């Protein structure tokens, strides 16, 4: 990593918008059926960051979410668990306690999520608090306003500082692509985040529309691929927000496989930030097992 | 002009307040009894059934939450719109080989039947709800509530009247429904969808699919998100299969095959009650 010189972020890497969208459309037409579909659904389930990020969150809600994370569907105990539970910093200790004894990580958003409009010191304190409470992973937001102003070194330094504050915790950097306007900006923000020390790059907070889209994800995956070729370092990817259906999840997995290869198809390098996706995956898995279309009435809400 | 090639209409399905084609893009030929090709209809698949159930489920809360009075107005409105498009339906039934007089009669009964059920929407809970005498200090009452999403399996006879007779009691009390129209005679059912579309019926409350019924019926009747089945097919094999399928999620099943859909007995509040659940409330009162 040290050998690699930082790229000049004032240069823009051109992105072929039509090309990206057509490639996504073509990969989406791929049909995944039967055995491979079941495998894909289970893989997707194991990659979920089960998320609750609402102002009305309470300890009870988080505990309930954690039990869903540990046992997604009681009648099928052999199903994989989700990868992590994602909460606000003040819920981390509750989640940590509820997940005790499982392999499920606790992820916490930090740095004045979701807007990121706060002083650096506040953001660092927020991050440290989350890590002290026991968060294994920290999801930070970048300062989109500074980024759009062209103040790239500000964004870079901020990410690097938060990375340092994280210590051993994994750092996911949320680009909030819905506010970055162009694919070129998404690409640039991805490069900045990866060079500044991100372990994961993540599309969105889920609070801004549009949230994760497949073309944006493809642009970010290509940034990860190029970064890997340059540095040999594998960076993870997390699309978040708006992924509700099992079919979409499978399409994302195809994108990852075709762009980065099978090495990235593990919860260590690919995650879904979602809450309702888990139930749709479960319903599709049960549909594949029983041959009968399912009803959400028979699956717990959280 | 005799060498002009006639344009045959392709009847589309009615799902979620729109008129989509089948996801399979397949169609099949509709012929009159003389074997003449008169139109095309969509050949729906299990995926169309799946999508229709999702739509019907999401429409249920809104429709059952409307005031009974408003549902009555809307049913009455369907009747009004049908009255206005009588000629179209007469022509369509004639095209399928019906006598003009019979066709007219079928449509008139359909209209009257809708008005009959429009009247029942705000009376059903008065008539079938009860206040129950109990020995403790509780105010105890039972009210019928709509069961949810109902799958309707239409017969081949009286293509318009039978569909009206099956749909009206189901939606009168606030259910939403998915209709599998007759394979041979789907045209009037689809045209009825056009009437519903122009009658303030919220999108997704009534969904109409056409095609090979045998390809869809199992997927509809096993679907865990369907609460009841209203079957008008008189075939013991089919009925047995339906019963078995319905048992998976303990659906209500009403077998209702008829030889004459014009009889007055089809105007009957108990047909509404067949698709309702009774909810009993114990409300404490001061001793």
TrEMBL record, chain A:
Stored InterPro entries: Aldolase_TIM, DeoC, DeoC/FbaB/LacD_aldolase
DNA damage found in the keyword field: no
Reactions performed catalytically: 2-deoxy-D-ribose 5-phosphate = D-glyceraldehyde 3-phosphate + acetaldehyde
Pathway: Carbohydrate degradation; 2-deoxy-D-ribose 1-phosphate degradation; D-glyceraldehyde 3-phosphate and acetaldehyde from 2-deoxy-alpha-D-ribose 1-phosphate: step 2/2
Alphabetical list of Gene3D superfamilies matching this protein: Aldolase class I (3.20.20.70)
Enzyme Commission number(s) of this protein: 4.1.2.4
Annotated keywords: Lyase, Schiff base
Coiled coil (residue ranges): none
Gene Ontology MF: a single term: deoxyribose-phosphate aldolase activity
Entries under PANTHER family matching the protein: DEOXYRIBOSE-PHOSPHATE ALDOLASE
Similarity comment: Belongs to the DeoC/FbaB aldolase family. DeoC type 2 subfamily.
The protein, known as: Deoxyribose-phosphate aldolase
Organism annotation: Rhodohalobacter sulfatireducens
TrEMBL record, chain B:
Keyword annotations: Oxidoreductase
Chain ranges of the Aldehyde dehydrogenase domain: 22-253
Record carries keyword Lyase: no
InterPro entries: Ald_DH/histidinol_DH, Ald_DH_N, Aldehyde_DH_dom
Signal peptide location: none
Matching Pfam families: Aldedh
Protein known as: Aldehyde dehydrogenase family protein
